[in-house]
Amino acid sequence: MRNIYFLSLLMLSSFNSCKEEPKEQEDLNVTLGINKEVQYKEPYRPQFHFSPPEKWMNDPNGLVYNNGVYHLFYQYYPEDIVWGPMHWGHAVSKDLINWENKPIALFPDEHGYIFSGSAVVDINNTSGFGTKDNPPLVAIFTYHDPEGEKAGRKDFQTQGIAYSLDNGDTWTMYNRNPVIPNRNIKDFRDPKVFWHEESRQWIMSLVAGDHAKFYKSRNLKYWQLTGEFGKDNGAHGGVWECPDLFKLKVEGTEEEKWVLLISINPGAPNGGSGTQYFVGDFNGRTFTAEHEDEKWLDFGTDNYAGVTYNNLPTDDRVFIGWMSNWNYARDTPTERWRSAMTLPRKLSLHKNVDSSYIIKNYPIKQFDAQLEDYKRIHKVENEGSLSVEHKELSTSVIDFKVNLKDDYTAKLKNKQGDEFVFNINPETNKMTVDRRNSGLVDFEKTFAGVHEQTFKPMDTVANVRMIFDRSSVEVFVDEGRHVFTDQVFPKEPFTQFEITSKSAPYYKNVNVFLVKPIWEEDE
Ligand code: FRU
Q1: Is 497 in the pocket of ligand 1 (CB under 6 A)?
Q2: Distance (Å) from CA 75 to ligand 1 centroid
Q3: Same domain, yes or no, for 83 and 206?
Q4: Are residues 300 and 373 in the same domain?
Q5: Closest to 436 in 3D by CA, of 416, 458, 420, 422
Q6: ω before 108 within 30° of 0 (cis)?
Q7: CA–CA separation, 288 and 334 (whole Å)
Q8: Nearest to 136 by CA among 311, 316, 318, 344
Q9: N- or C-end of the chain: fewer Cβ atoms within 10 A?
Q10: How many domains does the chain have?
C-alpha cells in the first residue's frame, strides 16, 4: 500500500487542479473515446481479456449480474496511465467474455476518491432507493479523502453508497454518505456486500489493515459491526485488501463451506501482491477458519484484488482479478492504457484425501466459445519434443496432458530469442514459470523473476491449459489446482511453442486453438 500513499500524495496537485477547473463528466467520456475509435491494436493490447479503452485501471469493482447483464466496474483514473484520483470505470457483457465499454459510473466527490467496493441488486428495495418493481442497483465503496491523508490523519477512508435505477447507466450518490465513518483506522476499505438469506440481512466484509471486519445491515444504510477475523491467521507480510466472503459447495458432495478471499500487498509467495484464501464457517456474525496453513489462489505475480460476482443466475462462483502487481503496475511498457483483467474464472472447492480443502480456479466454460480450432496434434513424437509454430500463437490456447510423475518443460518463444518457460519438476517437487528472458523485463527490478509453487508428484494424468494473450500467460494445471498468471512483454510476438520431456516423450492430446478477438469492428 505504501506505493499508493506515495502516489496519492503525488497526485494531490492534479486532484486540486481538477477541482479548480472541473471537467464536465460528459467531456471526460468523450475524451475517453468510449465506444468510439478505440482500436485495441497496440502491440501488447490483450485481444480477449478486458482492458480499459485507455488510461489507468486497477481492481475489478462492483461485479454484479442484473437483468441479463454482467457488470464490470473497475478502479479507473481517466486522465493518465498511472494511478490517480479514483473513479469507477464501467463495462457490460452478456457472456462475461465480450465487453462493451460504458461511460464512467462513479466520480470523486467532496468525500474523496472512489476506491474499491461491490454492488448488489437490492431486490426487495430494502434501501428504499427504488421500488419493488424497479429494484435499485446499489454500489458500496470506500471513499478515500486525499486531504485527510495529506494532513497525516488516520480516518481518511470511509464507506459510501450510490444507487442506479437504470441498470447501471447512471448513478446517484446517497446524500447522507458516508454510511460507515472511520474510527481512526488507517487502512479501512474495500467493502464486499452480499445478501445473507439465512439471517435475511446484508453482510459486509471490510478490511482494516491486518484483519477483516464484518458488518450487518437491513437497508444498506445503517451498518453494525458483528465480528472480526484474521489478526492471527494467514499471511501478514503486507496490508489486507479486497475481502470477499461466500459459500461454496464441496465438489461432488452436499457439504458447504464458507470461503474468505483476502488480497495482500506486499507479502505474496512470489513477491508483491497476491490473493490468499481461508476455508471455514460463517455464523452470520463472524468467520472462523479451519486451517492454520496459508493458502494461495495463484502463484504467478499478476492476479490481484480479485473478487466474485453477486447475484449470478447459477450457483457458480465467478472470479475476476486485476492482472498486475503493485510492485511494477505503474511501470509496465504500455503507452495508451495500463493493465488488463484475468479471464473470468470459476472457483470450485475440493476436499483432498487428507480432508484439507483447496480452491481451484479455471476459466469459465463460456470462454471456449472463443476458441478457433486450427490445429490438433495427437501423440506427435520427435525425439522427446513437440513444437508448434504459428504467426498468431500469441493469442492462443494450448491444452495438453501431463503425468505428474514426469518432468516437462513448455516454452513460448519468438525469433528474437525471448522465451517464457513453464516447468514441472517431480524431483524438486516444484512447478515454475520463468520470465527472466521473456523480453522487456528491466522496467522494474522484481519483474524478471522465476515464480514457483510446490506440488506432490504422483502417477496421475492432469490437464494443462496455457492461455496466451499478447502480454499475458495464464497456466492452469489440473483444472486450476495449480495456477500461474503472469504478464510478459516480448520484443516481438511469440510465434513458437514447444514441449520437451526427459521422461515422457509422448504428448497426449495436444490441442492448439487460436482465440477470436473480442474487440473486432463495432457492429
Ligand atoms: C487494491 C487497492 C484497494 C483500494 C484500491 C485503490 O489494489 O489498493 O485496497 O481500494 O486499490 O485504487
Answers
A1: no
A2: 8
A3: yes
A4: no
A5: 420
A6: no
A7: 42
A8: 311
A9: C
A10: 2
pLDDT in tens, 453-497: 999 999 999 999 999 999 999 999 999 999 999 999 999 999 999
Looking at the structure, do residues 314 and 408 belong to the same domain, yes or no? Answer: no
Cα–Cα distance measured from residue 427 to residue 436, given in angstroms and rounded to the nearest whole number: 22
Residues 308 and 422 in one domain: no
Q: 3-state SS of the chain: helix, strand, coil percent to 5?
A: 10, 45, 45
- Residue 386's nearest CA partner among 410, 402, 407, 403 is 410
Give catalytic status of residue 407 as yes or no.
Answer: no
Q: How high is the pLDDT of residue 509? A: 76
Q: What is the CATH number of the domain that holds 104?
A: 2.115.10.20
Strand residues in 43-187 grouped as ranges (E)? 55-66, 69-77, 87-93, 99-106, 113-121, 137-144, 157-164, 172-173
Q: Are residues 356 and 401 in the same domain?
A: no
Nearest-atom number in ligand 1 for the CA of 116 is: 10
Q: pTM for this one?
A: 0.93
Do both 205 and 226 map to the same domain? yes
Which residues, given as ranges, of the chain have pLDDT below 50? 1-22, 30, 33, 35-36, 379, 522-523
Catalytic residue among 59, 145, 190, 298: 59
Q: Is the CB of 481 under 6 A from ligand 1?
A: no
Residue type at 154?
K
Query: What is the reported pLDDT for 19?
Result: 35
- What is d(CA 202, CA 215) in angstroms, rounded to the nearest whole number? 8
β-strand pairing of 337-338 with 55-66: parallel
- Nearest atom in ligand 1 to 263's CA: 1
Q: What is the CA radius of gyration of the chain?
A: 23
Atom 8, ligand 1: which residue's CA is nearest?
1
Q: CA separation (Å) from 448 to 190, 416, 440?
A: 30, 17, 9
- Do β-strands 357-363 and 337-338 pair in parallel, antiparallel, or remain unpaired? unpaired
Boundary-marking domain end, from 346, 363, 380: 363
Of all protein residues, whose CA lies closest to atom 9 belonging to ligand 1?
241
Q: Do residue 371 and residue 356 come from a single domain?
A: no
**Any ligand 1 atom below 6 A from CB of 325:** no
Tell me, using a 6 A CB cutoff, whether residue 56 lines ligand 1.
no
> Do 410 and 353 have their domain in common?
no
Instruction: Give yes or no for a contact between 347 and 320, defined as CB atoms under 8 angstroms apart.
Output: no
